[in-house]
Specification:
The protein is α+β, with helices and mostly antiparallel strands. The chain has one domain: SH3 type barrels. It contains 3 helices and 6 strands. Strands 1-6-2-3-4-5 form a 6-stranded antiparallel sheet. Strand 3 and strand 4 form a beta hairpin. The longest helix has 10 residues. 18% of the residues are buried. The mean pLDDT is 88.
Length: 93
């Protein structure tokens, strides 16, 4: 017997970088891909220092005019501009 509830919850997680303007959700985890020129631990630490922590509320307020980049994100009560490639490390539900 499998736990369908746990697998369904895992499937709902999506990178914030794929979300559209108006998206509202909650941060589930930070998962930095190793394909960056900057060490994953450094990117993760920067995001945490900006307030992107598990459980925080997030909302995409605005998208840039060229390639929808950067995005303006409200994290709890703070508004931050973020590149979409950095937002890909933030998993939300």
């Amino acid at each position: 017997m499998t736990d369908h509830g746990a697998s369904a919850a895992a499937e709902e997680r999506t990178p914030l970088g794929l979300a559209q303007r108006g998206f509202c959700g909650r941060i589930e985890a930070i998962a930095v891909a190793a394909d960056s020129t900057v060490p994953a631990s450094e990117i993760e630490q920067r995001l945490i220092e900006l307030g992107f922590v598990e459980g925080a509320r997030v909302e995409i307020l605005h998208e840039g005019p060229i390639g929808r980049d950067p995005i303006a994100v409200r994290v709890n009560d703070t508004t931050i501009a973020l590149r979409r490639r950095e937002a890909m490390a933030i998993l939300v539900v």
